[in-house]
Amino acid sequence: MPLVLKVIWWAKRNQLYKVAQYLHWRESMWISIKCPPLPYCIVGGTSYFRTGDIHENRCLENVFDLLLVTKGELYMRVGKYDVTVKERQYLMLPPGIRHGGYRYCIEPTEFYWLHFCSEGRFSISSDDRPDVRVQASKSKFYRRDPFLITTSVYGNLDLHAYVMARQYMQILSQVKVSRATHRKTYSTGIVPIEQQSTFFELLDLLSRNRQHSATSNNLASHISEYLRHNISRPVSMNELSTEFSYSANYISRVVKQQYGMPPVRLSLEIRLDQAKRILEESQCSIKEVAKKTGFQSNTYFSRQFKKYTGMTPKEYQLAAWGSVYL
User: Fold this and answer.
1) Which pTM does this prediction carry?
2) Average pLDDT for residues 89-105, to the nearest whole number?
3) What are the backbone dihedrals phi and psi of residue 178, each rounded to the nearest 5 degrees, phi first?
4) Looking at residue 290, what is its pLDDT?
5) For position 304, what pLDDT does the model report?
6) Percent of the chain with pLDDT over 70
7) Which of 58, 94, 200, 280 qualifies as a cystine partner to 320, CB 3.0-4.6 A?
């Protein structure tokens, strides 16, 4: 067999051909593991990084690596992309992806980690597809029907899910790694059946978190709600990307699909709508209204308000209050 064909065959055998797809994971990527056979837990642990410590650079073959940050921030480079994993966020790395720290920790950081393996095939996709459930044969109940375990590669956990995930990870932690003491501590207290059942509970939790997480439309709605809750200041794309754990390009696309405008424009119109309500309901000065809606310049506020309503803020206020205001 020619060398090139051997390389292609070897890469496909080890599923490394999925690396190219995975490199775009920051725009919302999903890992689906086909079962049976079921994935199984190898070992879990906790790591304590001091200020100035950095995650090692490595590539795990045939092993998934799940990280859950409980304190501080972990700066990870996955392929050619950089991601900051904060408290209550997790990162799942599939096999064959080179990863490591891209900068040193700027504060003490603690995180759980879990290595697990699957002899079944896995796929990486940008589509949040529902789990595939095959209808069982009515006449042959002994047939084995496949299903998918699907979760996002990077995401936030709400408080309840975070507390549960911490409990599961704590049970699964058999290794404690401390950079302060340069020691690894091992524990063998957990029995294998408890280890695997707890691991499945964790996978189920992450899968359900994915099902309740934002789809494109829900994500756009959540972003709109976030902008309304932060109406007293302009919100940048970097802030939205950090808050919702999606790339700026992806956020811009889903918001534009639902609202017909990019997030920056949506933020501006939300603030201008609020300015209209304040002018209608109060006798605040134009300067006060501009400040309450996140405009540092009265001139810029007045210019944008006139473009939006066809009137200056003063004209709009006078029209709303009429002779009472005069």
Assistant:
1) 0.59
2) 92
3) -120, 120
4) 92
5) 92
6) 79
7) 280
Contact indicator for 110, 70 with CB cutoff of 8 Å: yes
Name the strands in the sheet holding 122-125, side by side, starting at the edge strand that comes first in the sequence. 122-125, 30-35, 147-152
The rounded distance, in Å, linking the Cα atoms of 292 and 278 is 9
C-alpha 294/C-alpha 234 separation (Å) is 6
**CA neighbours closer than 13 Å in the CB half-sphere of residue 139:** 0
- Distance in angstroms (rounded) separating the CA atoms of residues 11 and 121: 14
Crossing angle for the helix pair 298-309 and 263-281, nearest 10 degrees?
Answer: 90
Both structure tokens of 90: 């997790």
Q: CA dist 176 to 37, 51, 172, Å? A: 29, 18, 11
* Rounded to 5°, angle at Cα 301 from 297 and 305: 175
Kindly report the backbone phi and psi dihedral angles of residue 312, in degrees, each rounded to the nearest multiple of 5, phi listed first. Answer: -75, 160
Residue identified by tokens 């029907």 is 145
CB atoms within 10 A of CB 145: 11
Check if the beta carbon of residue 304 is closer than 8 Å to that of residue 268.
yes
Give bridge partners of residue 92 from the DSSP assignment: 66
Q: What Rg value do the Cα atoms of the chain yield, rounded? A: 25
pLDDT tens, position by position, 154-209: 888 877 888 899 999 999 998 887 766 666 777 767 788 999 999 999 999 998 87
H/E element, 287:
helix 286-292
Coil, strand or helix at 14 = coil
Strands 40-49 and 173-178, bridge-based pairing:
parallel
Q: Which residue has the tokens 């003490």?
A: 108
